[in-house]
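My current task is to audit a protein record that another person submitted. Alongside the sequence sits a line of tokens, each denoting a local backbone shape. Please read both lines and tell me whether the tokens look consistent with the sequence. Do not assume that whoever made the record got everything right. Thanks in advance; the entry in question is below.
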Amino acid sequence: MALAVAGVVNMAMVMMAASAFHKGHSEVAEIESAYHMLTPLLGGAAAGAFLISLIASGISSSVVGTMAGQMIMQGFVGFRIPIWLRRLITMAPAFVVVALGVNATQALVVSQIILSIALPVPMISLVIFTRSRAIMGEYANGRLIGTLAILGSLSVLTLNLVLLLQTFGVPIPGLAPG
């Protein structure tokens, strides 16, 4: 549920930004400039909602990632990490980026590229594990859910491949250069 909420919030922010900045505001290329441009375009309430949505999305994504890691560590590996250490490990990279004064937008783009490269391993593993009766027992995915999971995974992995190819300047037939 938390991941679904984060996804909906992210989609709403992208749609709002696309509609607000589509005509005549191509200079908006960073989160900070988007926030500052929202006030004259849509008012202070919209800028505040954007800020709150951004924070909520980040917290929701972090919670889901931490909980997933916890479940994997405890359930599959049988390894426990104290909650304070787990939180420190998951939050330390963000604090390091802030302390170094790295451009927030650039850090976000680099993190998404890294996630796109790493995503296939857990995604494919998740599809395989959730279809396995030996691992999941009676909770294993049936044929319909398994097929939908494979199709969804292939869609996400294809989109990630396109993103990576465009990021590294590889031309893709039928698509405009990214």
Notes: The chain has a mean pLDDT of 77. The CA atoms of residues 45 and 106 lie 27 Å apart.
